[in-house]
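Hi L., both proteins are below.
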Amino acid sequence: LSMYYLVYVPYSANRTIRQAYNDSNSLAGRLALATRSFDAHPGMSYKPREIMFDRLRGSMNRLSPDEKREVADFVLYEIERTLDGDPKNALVVAKGVAILQPMASPEGLEYLDRLLQHLRDQAPEREYTYWLSARQEILKGNYREAIQIVEEFEALTPWVSEALLDIKRRAAEALGDAR
């Protein structure tokens, strides 16, 4: 019995997630395989979730509106499962928020505020927390707040990525256009 749980279950979960990563499968099939893999070995599902989220984020431009809704439902479900199983796992939450932000409605952005607060609690000094928070403020039209978030991170470290500086530039340009 222990061989089953120590060897076969992780092997089976790995085999299933590799099938989910295969772009030749339909989106619905890939998402179902991923869920099946995560269910098979929940304790070892966080890194595969991160990878699956990265793959989904990279393919969002090729998806139809219906497929994007399907991805959003999947990502929301998996974020909630992550929070239930390992609330300190901020990276899965961050990668999920990165997928959801561009397609979120105003109500969806309000929901994402809760997840961003979770990131601020669990990963307060991570650049991705600041980047997602600043991006969220831009999406809500709060450009001054976005600039302030980037400047908070700049005060922590001289090493700021181009992506975060780009958020600051976009917010400043938007304020310049609004005047």
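That was the first. Here is the second:
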Amino acid sequence: PGHKFWAGILNVTSLQPHLDDVRMLGPGAWMFQETSATKDAQRSMGTYLRLKGYILSWGAPVPGRLQGSSKLASAMKGVGGVMTMSDLRVRKMRGAWPPGLWELGRIQDTMIVVNANVQVQAVNMYGYPESGRYPMWRQDNEKLIYFGVERCNLSRPGPKILCGDTNLDTLTSPMVKELL
């Protein structure tokens, strides 16, 4: 009895051009990866989606065009960004992430309030692509999964969703094998 809960995962390769499609998803919780949403884009898309009745929880904004050769500037030359959207109440979970995960727009932790008795924790991840730009992509994606699982294990008991585009073969991932 009670509210039926639907959840979905979408890798949109930039959210802005898909806004009209997104509003047709219906009820539930939708976790997006690769939003490419800068701070300004989060603000404008957030306003639009809230007017359509959705509640949003954004990961860190994807920085605008960064200059220089720092690790952050190099890592952000591609796309990133994660967001959870729902017709249910959502809130960001508190707590610090290890350096390089949150500020790169690669991971977020959200609580979705289904009803007074059920809250679902959703850890949403967007992994690094296999490319010369990310020579440690496999190890960094395993870390994403590790810290996502750790975050779930440290929170209160209840249903969890660990999702995203990790750019890993789930049949060969050591972290995924450990979970199974």
